[in-house]
Each structure stands twice: as C-alpha cells, then as structure tokens.
C-alpha cells in the first residue's frame, strides 16, 4: 500500500524520483527501493515525504486505491466524499464520512453557497455566520 501510494502520488505531482530524493535528503536509489517495496523509509523520512506531497502521513500509509474515488491521495484537509443523487425536491444526502468529519448532526442547519463558475458549497450555519461577522468587522 505505502509503495503504491508513494509511486502514484509522486507521479500525480509530476515529481521524479530525483526530485523527491532531493526534498527528503536521500539518494534516488533510496526512493527507488521504497517504490519497489524492497525497503521502507524511517518515520522521519516518511514525514518528510508526506510534507513534500502535501498529504498526511496517515493517508500516505493507509490510503486504498478505492479511497477518494480512485483519484489518489487528497491534499491535507481536502476530501472527496463521493457522488450523491439529487432527489425530486432537490434534497441531497450528505455522506456519513462528511457528516462525521464536519460534525453535522440531524437538525443542524447549513448554508448552501453558489458560484456559477465554480459550483456549490455547503457550510454549517454557525461557521458561515462567524466568517461573515469577521468580514464585516474587517470592512469597518
């Protein structure tokens, strides 16, 4: 799993083995051995790899190809929860993993934001109101 995530993420970021080796402070041959599964980096080097990729160490080690809809490891704090279907009345079910990460419970209110060029976003109402208040304070 680790070696596959290492190869796929490095290639996704269009990095060569040499590029990664330079960022982590090892030789290209060391990276090649990690990618082949012949050896694994120590914890310190693993953390440097995760930082170089902009992902969490946990995701670098545990990500399964089926996670993130097969698109590789998402950057830290970014999520792809899957595809949902819009119901007859416009309702959308927020995936369980998203509800857990963002602490959305039954009865909570959310704000739906939209940008015709970018798409839709959903935020918990209290977070949106705090953000709007901070913007208002900054305008004064």
Distance between the termini: 52 Å
Mean pLDDT comes to: 87
What general outline do the C-alpha atoms trace?
Answer: elongated
Helix proportion of residues, in percent? 40-55%
- CATH homologous group name of the largest domain: lambda repressor-like DNA-binding domains
Oligomer: single chain
The CATH class of the largest domain is identified as Mainly Alpha
CATH architecture of the largest domain: Orthogonal Bundle
Structural class: mainly alpha
Q: How many strands, which pairing sense, and closed or not: the largest β-sheet?
A: 2 strands, antiparallel
Helix segment tally: 7
Radius of gyration: 20 Å
Count of beta strands = 2
Q: Unreliable segments (pLDDT under 50, ≥5 consecutive)?
A: none
Placed side by side, the strands forming the largest sheet appear as: 1-2
What proportion strand? 5-15%
- What is the CATH topology of the largest domain? 434 Repressor (Amino-terminal Domain)
One letter per element, helices H and strands E, the order comes to HHHHHHEEH
How many structurally independent domains?
2
Compose a concise summary of this entry.
This protein has helices spanning 2-12, 17-24, 28-36, 43-53, 57-62, 96-101, 125-139, and strands at residues 110-115, 119-124. With 140 residues, it is mainly alpha-helical.
Detail the topology: elements first, then pairings.
Elements: H1 2-12, H2 17-24, H3 28-36, H4 43-53, H5 57-62, H6 96-101, E1 110-115, E2 119-124, H7 125-139
Antiparallel strand pairs: 1-2
Helix pairs in contact: 2-3
């Amino acid at each position: 799993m680790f070696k596959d995530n290492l190869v796929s993420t490095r290639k996704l970021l269009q990095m060569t083995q040499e590029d990664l080796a330079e960022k982590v402070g090892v030789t290209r041959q060391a990276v090649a051995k990690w990618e082949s599964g012949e050896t694994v980096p120590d914890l310190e080097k693993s953390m440097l790899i995760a930082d170089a990729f902009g992902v969490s160490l946990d995701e670098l080690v545990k990500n399964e190809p089926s996670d993130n809809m097969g698109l590789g490891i998402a950057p830290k704090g970014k999520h792809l929860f899957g595809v949902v279907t819009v119901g007859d009345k416009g309702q959308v079910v927020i995936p369980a993993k998203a509800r857990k990460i963002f602490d959305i419970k039954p009865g909570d209110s959310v704000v739906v934001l939209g940008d015709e060029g970018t798409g839709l976003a959903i935020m918990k109402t209290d977070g949106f109101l705090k953000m709007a208040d901070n913007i208002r304070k900054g305008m004064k």
